[in-house]
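Appendix B. Worked example

We walk through a single record from start to finish. Start with the input: the chain for TonB-dependent receptor, Maribacter arenosus, length 987.
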Amino acid sequence: MKITLLRSFLLVGAFICFGWAQAQEVSGTVSDANGPLPGASVVEKGTTNGTQTDFDGNFTITVGENATLVISYIGYSTTEIPVGGQTNITVTLAEDAQALDEVVIVGYGSSTKKEITSAVTVVGEEEFNQGTVNDASQLLQGKVAGLSIYNKGGNPNEDAVIRLRGISTVGANSEPLVVIDGVVGASLNNVDPNDIASVNVLKDGSAAAIYGTRGSSGVILVTTKRGTSGKTSVDYNGSLALSTIANNVDVMSPDEFAAAGGVDLGSRTDWLDLVTMDASTKINNVAISGGDENTNYRISGNFRDAQGILKNSGFKQYNTRASVTTYTFNDKLKIDFNMSYTKRKSRYGFNEALRYALLYNPTAPVYGVDSPFQFDSPTFGGYFETLGLFDSFNPVSIIQQNSNNGDKSEFTYSANFNYKIMDNWDLNALVSQQTSKLTNKEYYRTTSLWRGNATSPNRKGLARLYNEDTDFKLFELYSTYKASIGAADLTFTGGYSWQQNNRYDYFLSLGDFPNDNIDYINALEWSQDLENAGFIDANSGASPDDRIIAFFGRASATFDNAIFFNASVRREGSTKFGKDNQWATFPAVGIGADLNHYLELNNVDLLKVRVGYGVTGALPSSNGLSRSLYEPADGKLSSNQLTDANPDLKWEEKAETNFGLEFASGRLGATLDIYTRNISDFILERDVDVTIFPTGRRWENAGEMKSSGFELAVNYDVVKSEDLNYNTGIVLSRNKTTLEKYTIPQEMRGSLGAPGQNDTDMILVREGEEIGQIWGPVFTGEVVDGSQVLEDLNGDGQLLTAQNNALDPDGDFAVLGKGTPDFELGWTNRLTYKRWDLNAFFRGAFGHSLINTYRAFYEPRVGSQGSYNFVNTEFADPAITNAKFSSLYVEKADFVKLDNLSIGYTFDLGENKYIKGVRVTASGQNLFTITNYTGSDPEPALQDRGSEADNAGFTTTDSPDPLIPGIDRRSNYFSATTFTLGLNINF
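Next comes the structure step. The output line below is what the pipeline stores for this chain.
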């Protein structure tokens, strides 16, 4: 009622002011290129008389005789229409072209979105994934076509596996280069997600080539938040989250286990409940920013206390970041200083406890005193243990008696000096250093059967210490010059880069302690190993100066504001090669054209085609591979030669061609990229002629891969008005990688592991075929005498009896699935209504399979396994009593999940002089998953670290192998569903 009366008074006042001018009613429709615009503003110019269009874009307004209508809409250019004598007006608004002039950061400079000739994706803060995000890479999960980010199982202490456009190398680093505020090779772990303003992803070779070898797997450019001029502002962000197990592996209940013939020990124990919990995560972030016309600053502090769903796992982390920007020398010199420090204390726990919680006898008691099987408490700490069984340990004992903790600190600083020599010519210098220190400590009590006594019956207890220190230094100097000649705008950049990395580590292991009444440090000091050297293990390592020096240049040009050209070259040298092969050249070129500039298509804002070509390289993972390598012999000063020298060892190269198409029309935008990669000369250790090379082994350029795919991103503003907005976007990608050349024509990798299946390899690596093929015998569905009947694929009348059939293309093995997905999908939905906002994000992967190792080991009703619980999925067949890998245990793992759902409300505080803004949010992550996979997590396993444990029972620490995707290991963490409440206050 009050609004109606106020509007009436305003109309009366307007008539009086205009001398009772003759009024008229005007109707009309407001649209864009795709249809009606609901909620568009229609106002009589110079007055407060106005209205909004309805859902169909229609409006009616009464105005003066000589009125002009001002029609506006968010994201569109404002239009003014003189009414004259018109009574019906149709208006088509054009999208504001400012978005095409958005500045996008690229390597050593910036460009506008319209002028870029490479495949580059920009993700702003408003597009980041919401909720509890402890790893900065998770902000981008599913948001960038072609960028795969998976933290299979969701262990809070493990970094996500990141792949850009599939596998880019075999023997080198396969993850994208990270550049934070210009610092090449910075750590994502040293930037808190709350401090990130935007992320640019350089996907193709023409964009990444200017970074040379380090950009071979793509580049992720992170820009952190900066201070702004004005009154000091304080921002607080806090959240509290609760996580529960999203899904686990189906096993038998205690009664089912006893009925199935399992050894009944008289108790009924829910082991999984005893070793897991509802985990909480608390995050507190405070940022202070401000400045004046010459200097601005931002200082932030972040504290995270993240629990894992496995008891005694999680971390506490403190991170601080400071940035200062100042202008001096008459504003010619701009200085940017950045500093960050992260301190994390981790409790890694033991993932194996999750496995044993599923598989340990569900009728066993927790403590020995509760069982008819009495044990001496000092021997096993009072915990019941099923002695004599391989790979079977009390999971509660594992997490309660032993510890596995770590400390990590990282410190980074950078200073960037930009001096404006002339208005169109500047000079830039960057100096940076990053240091990190990692310490891991494991302690196994003398009363712990697991790892304490089981692997060495004469040893009581064990303590292990690992320490690693790394130091990275960077200096870069480059200059940029801009000029205009007629209709051409030119930019030239040239520079120099120097970087050096050093690493030092040592490892110490001691055992056989006098008693269990000592802590970890005393265990190291008091160990009887000082007298009994049989239980001492110690080693150390140090890298030489790992140095890269490079010279680079780039020229870009824009002609007629519609034709765009970019070319770069980098000449780079590395100490990892012999003196004759230390240098390599990496060129790139790209060209693009806005066809709409010449075609002048109706209702089209942009129609750009672009083609880019770039060459990048990759360095070997270790130093000195071109020289002969040695190892100590029998703990003495003598040594054994491991490999022979190869002075001809050279750079690995990746040549990539990318074709792109960009389209924008009103509320619709789309980008399509099609690419082909040829990776050659990747560096592998291989067998050589022993008559020429004494060891018969050396490192050589011995492999080639080919990768191709496409990426599609579509974004559409379904509703766009002052009060209501709804935007939806889809990213879809496909990648296929083929091994063109390899050290040997074919081999099998990926051992299934113990017990009993160490010789069973499951992943085929064969020249000319796609990487990631799961290879093995095919189950017919019949069971005879407890064994699966396998298909006679080659028709020779002989059933498969040996694993070497895997190496016979005409044998009885077949492709059972593929470890990498055919398609990956992300679907974003953003809805705002006045002060409310809703975000729903769905993610999926299709075409990949997983080897369910839990089923392969524990689904068969093996007689000797009567003290292990049985996996009890829909595929379980009680008739199968012999464990053997086959197609039965390979499952399609396609999935779609509601990855993130959040709702927020921003309060209207009016003119409150103390609090500028308050916002509350509620979100859920991993809320539901649609899949037929029976394991705990259907997400792809893009790499593998080998079988479950080494001979001593310790989890292997081998480098992950990208040639072995698709194995869902028993050591994986369980994924979690997380609910988060968040609060943001701005003072």
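Two observations about the output. The longest strand covers residues 462-485. The domain at 2-94 is CATH 2.60.40.1120 (Immunoglobulin-like).
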